[in-house]
Amino acid sequence: MADWEDLCNRCGQCCFEKWVEEDGTIHPTSIPCRFLDIVSRECKVYHKRLDVGEGCVKLTPKLVAGVQWLPEDCAYRQPPQKKGRR
Ligand code: SF4
Asked: 10-62, pLDDT tens digit by residue?
């Protein structure tokens, strides 16, 4: 799973609260998770983020394919780059 997690560019956009309208439209807010270092954009509790009660979820390929709340430019949402000759 290390290769998968290496895709993340640590932009931190997914670590801001979202506001969801009744029709499901999702709006990002400027309110960060309390564990996000807003300067480095790194999670201060990354290795125990799933246990601290903030609703953090582990991003897997299956989950990423099914969620709407990750930003369009999230590295996990980009098509895979082809390796080899150009
Ligand atoms: S939005 Fe995507 S690329 Fe940015 S920190 Fe979150 S998972 Fe990583």
From this structure: 999 999 999 999 999 999 999 999 999 999 999 999 999 999 988 999 999 99
* 10 close to 42: Cβ distance less than 8 angstroms: yes
Residue 71 belongs to domain spanning: 2-77
Q: Which residue's C-alpha comes closest to atom 6 of ligand 1?
A: 14
Q: Domain total for the chain?
A: 1
* CA max distance for the chain: 48
* Distance of alpha carbon 8 from alpha carbon 14, whole angstroms: 11
In angstroms, rounded to a whole number, what is the distance separating the alpha carbons of residues 61 and 69?
14
Nearest protein Cα to ligand 1, atom 7? 8
